[in-house]
TrEMBL record:
Domain of life assignment: Eukaryota
The protein, known as: PORR domain-containing protein
Pfam family, one: PORR
Coiled coil location: none
Record domain PORR: where: 47-380
Native source species: Chenopodium quinoa
GO MF terms held by the record: RNA binding
């Protein structure tokens, strides 16, 4: 028993110190003590295969879109194969070459023999590619709003530019956002240098933006009209309760919570907590209400991304700005009805579960619809980009 305890504590320390560790095998080693001589039960982190699948399905579309961006960034709108390694590295070069060969409807190859081999977009792909400008134009007010909300979430209304760079793809920002977006809105943003480091500052606080995505969803569903008092629920079998302080819960099919767990969850769901847009320094972090507020902050942070997911490394990078707990991964695991962590991909990724229906992202922003249309030229239709379940652009404001 002592030997096992030492093994568990070593793994627990590793999990706390490195959020990118493989969660699945480490959690399986956790055991519960039992009375009598029965074999202790393993505590399993239940996988959500549909969300694991999202990470698998995005691999080939990601290569296609990366190649498109590289080709369009070149002066002559084409790239020589000999220069591809400089752009993507030695390993990724082979993935790109395989995509070029596999999708002739998107990539046109010319040259050979004595002439250098060059790759450009086909005429059809070029016609679709020009639609990205319109998608970016539709995205601009959304990006400005979400960037303002991100700064409002932080304790000092400022974030180092290097951290914005870290999540620029997740926010949907254009590659040149520092030149094309930030200077365009001086009434909202400014870049100031502090101790030799560039920070993005919020210029004006707007209380109308201080409404979370969770609250907006509750308003749409009518849950805030009577605060949930019009519905009497004994003990919910799935953990969902009406009311202004409840989160949407979605446990995996194999998870069977007992009555005690559900009773504790009911108390937690009905517990009041301060808004994520109030300064975190005002609250005692040991207070249960403040701890629930942290869940709301994480929920809102993921809601500001275009695909409602970030890597655990990216989330932990905002620890000081959002006053997140040191053991962030453990907080996410505890609330696995709200968040899901997958180890598919290079880094572990955190999903906001309510944002997905199976493997399909429910809300599609204009830039995601454009990407879906471009990837569809390859003849494949991936659920991570498909238009199957989506809302119109006007529903995203």
């Amino acid at each position: 028993m002592m030997r096992f305890k030492g093994l568990f504590m070593n793994n627990f320390a590793a999990l706390s110190s490195n959020p990118c560790q493989n969660l699945s095998h480490m959690l399986v080693q956790t055991r519960h003590k039992t009375s009598g001589g029965s074999k202790p039960k393993k505590k399993v982190y239940y996988r959500v295969h549909e969300l694991d699948k999202v990470m698998d399905l995005q691999k080939k579309p990601a290569v296609i879109l990366q190649l498109k961006d590289i080709i369009e960034s070149q002066k002559n709108k084409c790239i020589f194969l000999r220069d591809l390694e400089k752009e993507v590295g030695f390993v990724q070069k082979w993935n790109c070459m395989a995509a070029i060969e596999k999708y002739p409807t998107i990539f046109h190859v010319s040259g050979g023999d004595r002439a250098p081999v060059a790759v450009r977009l086909t005429d059809k792909a070029q016609r679709v590619a020009v639609e990205e400008d319109e998608a970016r134009m539709l995205m601009e007010p959304i990006l400005v709003k979400n960037l303002r909300k991100l700064l409002m979430l932080t304790v000092d209304c400022k974030v180092p530019m290097e951290k914005i760079d870290l999540i620029e793809n997740e926010l949907g920002l254009p590659l040149d956002y520092k030149k094309s977006l930030i200077p365009k809105y001086p009434e909202f943003f400014s870049v100031k240098e502090i101790n030799g480091k560039a920070y993005l500052h919020l210029e004006n606080w707007n209380s109308s933006l201080g409404v979370t995505a969770r609250e907006e969803n509750l308003v749409r569903e009518g849950e805030l009209k009577d605060g949930g008092r019009g519905k009497k629920v004994k003990i919910s079998k799935d953990g969902n309760y009406p009311g202004p302080y409840a989160f949407r819960i979605c446990y995996p099919a194999g998870f069977r919570p007992n009555t005690g767990f559900l009773e504790e969850l009911e108390r937690w769901q009905k517990t009041e907590f301060p808004s994520p847009y109030l300064n975190a320094r005002r609250f005692n972090q040991a207070d249960p209400k403040a701890r629930k507020r942290i869940v709301a902050v994480l929920h809102e942070l993921l809601s500001l991304t275009i695909e409602k997911r970030m890597t655990s490394f990216q989330m932990s990078a905002f620890q000081s700005e959002l006053l997140l707990p040191a053991r962030l991964i453990l907080c996410l695991i505890k609330h696995h009805g709200i968040f899901y962590i997958t180890n598919k991909g290079v880094r572990s990724t955190v999903f906001l579960k309510e944002a997905y229906d199976g493997s399909n992202l429910i809300q599609k922003y204009p830039i995601l619809k454009f990407k879906a249309k471009f990837v569809a030229l390859s003849g494949r239709k991936d659920s991570s980009f498909a238009d199957g379940i989506s809302h119109n652009y006007r529903d995203l404001h």
